[in-house]
Amino acid sequence: MKTVSLQILVAMVAGFIGSSAVASIVVTQTTDGPTLASALAGTGLSSVTATVNAGNSAQFGTYTGFNQGPLTLPNGIVMSTGEVVQTPESYAEPLSYPQISTDFGDGSTAEYTAYATGRVTNFGSAHDVASLTIQFDLAASSAVTFNWAFGSVEYPNFTSEFTDAVFAFLDGTNASNQILYDASNNPVQVGNSFASALITDDQNTAFAGTHGIIGLTTTTGLLAPGIHTLTFEIGDTNDGALDSAIFVGPISTTNAIGTGPVTVATNAPDACSTACLLGVSLLGLVAIKRKMGANGPVANLA
Question: Phi/psi of residue 3, each to 5°?
Fold first, then answer.
């Protein structure tokens, strides 16, 4: 009887809050190049192709309906260290421990391991690395930009031991080609990055409740006309258990901001948040400009 009463109460609260309490995201597993390319082909790009380089087929897919606040993203692609079809979950019914966890028993890529060594907290080895390369053509000089979100069920219990991470390499796979950084200018990883823009009340994915997700926008520096590549790679750190995922919206041309790349927070406060009640409107407006150096971007104040 108590259980039934609690369920009724939850239903009443959910009804009061509205449809935002139920996730509407739909994830479709696919490694089809044209499908993935179409999901990432934003304005200003031509001849867009997508190629899976490493990982299990279950680790790649597309998503639609990432539209419940406080974090929203345009339709795009999703990559996971586990199965992408497990990444959506009702906000009102989070998965029970051990959460989403699939160990494919796969390893890393040379560039992922090389970059993570010394840059990811307590990194020892990478597992189940998924790698996807997007190739596109620019008719004129332009920067490109994309929204993305990184979530993990490693947070908050394993932020120092199993720091899953995600990188993006632009036009090459050396350290200087890595452009995906968090709001604190760190390579994106569980722990440090979550402290920079943590969201624990996401209503779109399984990375809610006791877990976390961050939402950011990356803008490159000015790129020359012609063919360019962007390689996204995500992996488990030190074991293959407990999964993380990155959701990436369409890549589009835009004006360069300084020499790039630039990272800004994409999540605005919810309509009922304290920040809104206080009239704070500066969230997401603070950018970090980075100049590319021998070991990657160097932060400059915006």
Answer: -65, -45
Phi-psi domain of 226 (left: phi exceeds 0; alpha: psi -120 through 50; beta: other): left
Rounded to whole angstroms, the Cα distance separating 73 from 149 reads: 8
Task: Report the C-alpha gap between 262 and 236 in whole angstroms.
Answer: 26
Where along the chain do its domains lie?
Answer: 19-301
**Token pair listed for 131:** 């790698």
CA pseudo-torsion sign 69, 28, 78, 194? positive
Burial 88-123 (b: 16+ CB within 10 A, else e): bbebbebbeeebbbbebebebbebbbebbeebbbeb
- Residues with Cβ < 8 Å from 155, sequence gap 6 or more? 190, 191, 194, 207, 211, 212
What's the number of CA atoms in the CB half-sphere (13 Å) around residue 53? 21
Q: Does pTM surpass 0.70?
A: yes
* pLDDT tens figures, 168-208: 999 999 999 999 999 888 999 998 898 878 998 898 999 98
Q: Which residue has the higher pLDDT, 288 or 107?
A: 107
State the DSSP code for 22: S
Distance of alpha carbon 253 from alpha carbon 222, whole angstroms: 10
**Strands 126-138, 252-254: pairing kind:** unpaired
Length of the chain: 302
Specify which residues 246 forms β-bridges with.
Answer: 79, 150
State the Rg of the chain over Cα.
Answer: 19
Q: What share of the chain is helix, strand, coil (3-state, %, to 5)?
A: 20, 35, 45
Dihedral-angle region of residue 296 (phi above 0 means left; psi in -120 to 50 means alpha; beta otherwise): left
87: left (phi over 0), alpha (psi -120 to 50) or beta: alpha
What residues contact residue 131 under an 8 Å CB cut-off, 6+ apart? 52, 53, 54, 55, 109, 112, 231, 232, 233
